[in-house]
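Researcher: I'd like a structural prediction for the single chain below. Treat it as a standalone chain; there are no partners to consider.
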Amino acid sequence: MNWLDNVKWDAQGLVPVIAQEVATGDVLMFAWMNREALQQTAELGRAVYFSRSRGKLWFKGEESGHVQTVHDIRLDCDNDVILLKVTQQGHEPGIACHTGRHSCFFQRYDNGAWHVVEPVLKDPETIYR
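Model: Treating it as a single chain, here is the predicted structure.
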């Protein structure tokens, strides 16, 4: 049996993926992978996702330079979520979010409202051309 067959792919052939920074434990982002993306991630040692909006493989950092080097690929107990332990490249600290922030999870709920709690490290207009 191929190791990819152990993954419980959804009806669209995708699996949710969480990227976690290996050094800090910070959760950087959530994305999707199809079989090809997971295969390439394992082979290349860099994060490759599937962009649902573009309908194609998305090599993290292909436009921004904010590549994710993959140290560990894990499958959860139900075989339906992937965890990547990564080093975020391209800026110090690494920028994982298209908003120019370290993490996509930069909004915190408090007292009935969402509050931005992480700064923009680099203007997204200068990242994406």
